[in-house]
Design a protein that fits this description.
By secondary structure, the protein is α/β, with parallel strands linked by helices. The protein folds into two domains: about 5-110 and about 260-340 and about 385-395, 3-Layer(bba) Sandwich (FAD/NAD(P)-binding domain), CATH 3.50.50.60; about 110-255, FAD/NAD(P)-binding domain, CATH 3.50.50. About 25% of the residues lie in helices and about 25% in strands. It is built from nine helices and 21 strands. The protein has helices at about 15-25, 45-50, 120, 135-145, 165-180, 200-215, 260-265, 310-330, 375-390; strands at about 5-10, 30-35, 40, 60-65, 70-75, 80-85, 90, 95-105, 110, 125-130, 150-155, 185-190, 215-220, 220-230, 235-240, 245-250, 250-255, 260, 295, 340-345, 350-355. A hairpin with a 2-residue loop joins strand 20 and strand 21 (about 350-355). Helix 1 packs across helix 8. It binds flavin-adenine dinucleotide (FAD).
Length: about 400
Amino acid sequence: MTTTHHRIVIIGAGTAGIAVAARLNSHGEKDIAIVDPSTKHYYQPLWTLVGGGRANAGSTERNQSSLIPKHVTWIQDAAAGFRPEERLVDLASGDSVGYDALVVCPGIQLDFDQLPGSKEALGKDGVSTNYRFELAPKTWDFIRETTKGTAVFTMPSGPIKCAGAPQKIAYLAADYWRKQGVLKDINMVLVLPTPGMFGVPEFASVLEQVVDRYGIDVRFKSEVTELDSDAKEVMIKDLDSGEQSSLGYDFVHVVPPQSAPDWIKASPLSVPGEAKGWVDIDKNTMQHVRYPEVFALGDAGSSPNSKTGAAIRKQAPVVVQNVIDLLKGNGITRHYDGYASCPIVTSQNRMLLAEFDYTMRPHKTVPLIDTQKERYDMWLLKKYGLPFMYWNVLMKGRGMTTPGAFAS
Ligand SMILES: Cc1cc2nc3c(=O)[nH]c(=O)nc-3n(C[C@H](O)[C@H](O)[C@H](O)COP(=O)(O)OP(=O)(O)OC[C@H]3O[C@@H](n4cnc5c(N)ncnc54)[C@H](O)[C@@H]3O)c2cc1C
């Protein structure tokens, strides 16, 4: 068991970890280590299009080694715990690594075990999810195989990554079934825990027209609580009355409940007494509320923004500058305003760009065009523009201070 030391240690080499490492690197920081056991990195926003038959799964995967910036040490191990008083991270191998500043971004945990029956059903008999790389292509297989019956699209209560993804796949499927002439034979049911289609009224009103157009039966303030793959039924709970009812299905797109990874929950860095276990940070500075040399961003942080790559694009420059200032002994001055965007695909070739911040008001960054309606040019942005920007701008630590939605 060995203990090494680096000036800056980053936990997780996903969207947030690589964006921060690349940007710190370009600021001339020489002693950075990034901890991640995975040899692969994924551009997850495209998994929606994979499930909808509009993109190839292979294009979303790259070798981690091709993304970790030169001069950054890759510790290919899993973080397992923190000793913040000693400024140490414990690793699964038994080794530990010390730091002057720590950036925590290991992503979110998919809690399929909180949705009984789902784990064993996935990938078989019409049950799939776009939330896992290897299953997104199965979603598309099952959509193509479905020509009649009931199709259920689920969304759990509580924060999840890309809260728009549970409904985007419903619209892609509906548009495909419409083109095949079978939409009229399919009872589409979208089960949402929320009281409306979206938290920002301007976007909700567009989405209300979309569900009407496809004839989707939206069950608001409801949640799928169990899946019985033998009976081909889901249990749906009315969140107001607590009443449960069953619904037979031919196809289900499952989105599981989500939380911080269990080892984060159990660590001294999590929000005390909060079951989801997010890393306890100030929502503007992204600095830990009890350990000043610790920062977090991305899906694992407690900041109440929409958990998206788009948010990370705005968080990363704040974290990087605040880490640099902290190490120089200066005050922490950079603030994140909660910006996030959700590119909501509403058909096989249309998209609405929902941009907002902590105020939950529209926060438009694309000039000249009206991005608050369904558009073909926005669809091209989603399919081609955003992936290009992800690999060539965000992952290279470039261009993150200029305005714009080109995050994910
Ligand atoms: C279906 C789907 C659609 C989406 N659509 C959009 C969209 O349209 N727009 C958008 O902006 N966002 C979208 N997102 C969300 C976006 O992908 C995430 O918000 C973003 O990737 C989060 O980045 P992150 O760095 O926090 O976590 P991740 O990118 O998930 O990376 C976490 C990293 O931590 C590593 N890790 C895990 N455990 C450990 C450990 N113990 N020790 C060390 N490393 C560890 C993992 O291997 C991984 O590399 C979508 C996500 C999904 C699943």
